[in-house]
Amino acid sequence: MKNAPLTDTVFVLVHGAWHSSGQWAATQRTLAGLGAASVAVDLPGHGFDARLPSGYLLPGQPGLLTEKSRLASLTMDDCAEAVLGVLRRVRHHHTVVLVAHSAGGGPASLAAERAPELVDRIVYLSAFVPGGRSRFRDYLGSPENATALGQNLILGDPEALGAIRINPLSPDPAYLHELRETHYHDTPQDRFDRWRSALSPDLPLAIPTAPVALTPARWGRIPRTFLRCAEDRALTPAAQDLMITEADRAFPESPFTVRTLPGSHSPFAARPDELAAALAT
Q1: Contact criterion met (CB below 8 Å) for 227 and 121
Q2: Name one Pfam family in it (predicted).
């Protein structure tokens, strides 16, 4: 792949929890300037078609703590199929690079496992790698991730709601401060306010809890890169390193190429040009 011209490359970009294809726009502009095509995926339950809790946009947000999510029935299979649909449409490019951020690592990994012939390289941007442990929550709850922020952002009972629910439109300054410190601490305040308004409140519960099984003959044969976020407060560098180590131990034939980016969990917001440059190389 490293000898293929960038003009023959397409990046398929998979967002993380509560985000959407829109998070990649600035990075895509820079990739286009470098000669690369890119397509950003909206996972089911995210983006402009996301089904919101009925009171989310109303004064006082009635029922936000208790209303069952309209996304509760979504499965990991549904999310992987959304990625596969895009991969099938772009396979005519010489080189296809699948890029996943955060919780998007689960659906992206399952898609690559099911159709490794559609992916030439997979890149994990501070993303869940199910190589050692099959569920994202097993890493989120690990001792290595004990210092991560964000637990106070979760509303209600996720099992009862069928989703991990947050409130990006909260009027509480303390809540918004934790949201920024968790995901966007190096993004200017005015830009953070715009970013948070575009987030969806519900992450389908299946994404962090459903197991993703990988095999050496399929996922394991795809060259892979991990882009670490050095000051990540949502998924700590120690937890990122744990996933890399355990995946390389389970799949030693094709270990990760590892690079480190400065800053937070959200480089697409804070430094999209640097992120695009890292992907291009």
Answers
A1: no
A2: Abhydrolase_6
pLDDT in tens, 129-166: 999 999 999 999 999 999 999 999 999 999 999 999 99
The single residue listed with the structure tokens 């509480």 is 172
pLDDT tier at 281 (50, 70, 90 boundaries)?
Answer: confident
Residue with tokens 């990046």: 11
Q: Are 164 and 210 in contact (CB under 8 A)?
A: no
SS3 62: coil
What pairing do the DSSP bridges indicate for beta strands 121-125 and 202-204?
A: unpaired
Distance of CA 157 to the CA centre of its chain: 22
Alpha helix stretches (DSSP H) within the chain:
25-33, 76-90, 105-114, 136-140, 158-161, 173-183, 189-197, 206-209, 237-250, 267-270, 272-280
Walk me through the domains of the chain, giving residue ranges and CATH numbers. Answer: 6-280 (3.40.50.1820)
The whole-angstrom separation of Cα 212 and Cα 40 is 22
Question: How many other C-beta atoms lie within 10 A of the C-beta of residue 230?
Answer: 12
Strand-pair partners of 226? 124, 258
Write out pLDDT tens, residues 92-122. Answer: 999 999 999 999 999 999 999 999 999 999 9
Residue 262, Ramachandran bin (φ over 0: left; ψ between -120 and 50: alpha; else beta): beta
Instruction: Please report, to the nearest 10 degrees, the dihedral formed by the alpha carbons of residues 241, 13, 19, 165 taken in order.
Output: -60
Both tokens of residue 167? 């409130």
Q: Which pair of tokens denotes residue 166? A: 């947050």
Q: Mapping DSSP to helix (H, G, I), strand (E, B) and coil, where does residue 56 land?
A: coil
* pTM across the whole model: 0.96
Q: What whole-number distance in Å separates Cα of residue 76 and Cα of residue 111?
A: 10
* Structure confidence at residue 2 (pLDDT): 46
